[in-house]
Amino acid sequence: MLEKNNHDSILVLDFGAQYSQLIARRVRECGVYSEIVPYTITSDEVKARNPKGIIFSGGPSSVKTPGSPRPDMALFDLGLPILGICYGLQVMSLMLGGKVDCPEKKEYGIANIDIIRQSVLFDGVSRKSQVWMSHGDSVVALAPGFECIASTPNCPYTAVENRAKGFYGVQFHPEVVHSLEGTKMIENFVLKVAKCTRSWNMGSFINDSVKAIREKVGDKNVLLGLSGGVDSSVAALLIHKAIGDQLVCVFVNNGLLRKNEAENVINLFGKHFNIRLQYADAEKDFLDALKGVTEPEQKRKIIGKVFVDTFYKEARKCGDISFLAQGTLYPDVIESRSPSGGPSSTIKSHHNVGGLPEDLKWDLLEPLKELFKDEVRELGKELGLPDELVYRHPFPGPGLGVRCIGEVTKERLDTLREIDAIYIEEIRKAGLYDKIWQALADLLPVKSVGVQGDERTYREVCTLRAVTSEDAMTADWFRMPYELLQRCASRICNEVPGVNRVLYDITSKPPGTIEWE
Ligand code: XMP
Q: How far is the first Cα of the chain from the last one, in angstroms, to the nearest whole number?
């Protein structure tokens, strides 16, 4: 959607590496726009995008396996600099006349390279720089025109260059943090070899987006489902900056929110930012529909369905709407790409299950779809979103509904809200909030005997959980200080009626998921 022509850019060809997104992020950290495209992109398509350079990512395949991925040969004749990383180096070497083999000594983990020849790729990099290796195959004979610029004992051609053509290759992964000066190497390629100008930053992104949103929307109206999470909040502020009152946000209070959350959203967006807010208090609808339901998947389905029904009911009250805005991020776009490589524009299922009703015909507006999560946070800060919201832990769409194990009732939700508020408050007070990916409390449908004062109690049990994670795919349980756990347990038992026992969950993911349901 954005007008990219005024920014220099680097294309990352994705050969299936788990690190492709990281490469694009590192390039953007240099102040240069970067996009990930499938390795099948043709040279004409590359030309049309007008990048200043190309990076071939790593990948899980071996170039020696028949049918393994090959980029368009014509890419090498575009006159554009290319940096090949791991598989990217091997495939470039092979296609240009070098040899790749699978030597006996494979290399995984940390290594120190020996820079044996001065190269612009290593400007400002120490001679024995630490890098991260992960490869089976290696280049064993250079392609014509290439020279070796660095090696390790197990991998003679660790880094190579064809200076005349601007082709570079590294066997290690400069994009990962274990390659201590890897970002410097990527920066050298981007700024010194591809000669990009640094022009990509959140200030320029805001200006470009505001212009693009105004052009796309014209005098029409836009609807956005505001959840109180980072993505929809940032999308709301950005669109509001562009079109003011042509944006209307629908905020559904499903009764499954955290303590004070509905008030906070109304105060911040409705009052402070002055955004048109259509508030739906649907607590009763949700709780009625959830009555007697204990099975997790059934709960999720019900919550999803009531949300969609409520959202559409509210949308119909918002007048003439032409666009539905969503806080879709770049990783969602990459992950949902069709095999042909075209970015998918399907509406996220947990936002909008089952497609649009007949009488609501909206186009999609996704102003964050070029951004990574940390860029969205930066953008949020730039747009004036309070830090507390910008750095908030993830919170699931079905909210406390999937943390209230067993039947979801108003009374049990109120209990859980109090527990959660104490837990998060204590974590914040201890300065640990930002060290944790996610902290959550669950209320169990189990009662235990306790004694408080001289009185025997028979009350429910709650669990506290905190995990560290990079992307929620895997997670480790957080080693919470005992004193903090002790304070939480004591406060919860004293301050929250209905609970007399507190447990701490030490399950990692796998085998556990982050949420209990
Ligand atoms: P699990 O429990 O599968 O969760 O390990 C991984 C991450 O996803 C969040 N989560 C959700 N987020 N809608 C969401 O927007 C959902 O239905 C949902 N379920 C789980 C969870 O909190 C964790 O961050």
A: 37
Residue 337: per-residue pLDDT: 62
Domains and CATH numbers, the chain: 9-193 (3.40.50.880), 202-390 (3.40.50.620), 408-504 (3.30.300.10)
- The residue among 92, 63, 112 whose CA lies nearest residue 168 is 92
**pLDDT above 70 for 1:** no
E strand segments, 380-506: 438-452, 455-468, 476-477, 499-504
Kindly tell me the burial class for residue 349, based on how many C-beta atoms sit within 10 Å of its own C-beta (0-12, 13-18, 19 or more). Answer: exposed
pLDDT of residue 510: 94
- How far does residue 412's CA lie from ligand 1's centre (Å)? 21
Contact 23, 57 (CB under 8 A): yes
Please tell me which residue in 7, 30, 86, 366 is annotated as part of the active site. 86
Output the CA 437–ligand 1 centroid distance in Å.
Answer: 12
Q: Is the pLDDT of residue 316 over 50?
A: yes
The Cα–Cα gap between 225 and 348 comes to 12
> What are 485's two structure tokens?
């756990």
Name, in order, each residue with C-beta under 8 angstroms of 434's C-beta and a sequence gap of 6 or more: 391
Pocket of ligand 1 from Cβ distances under 6 Å:
350, 394, 396-398, 438, 472, 509, 513-515
H/E segment holding residue 399:
none
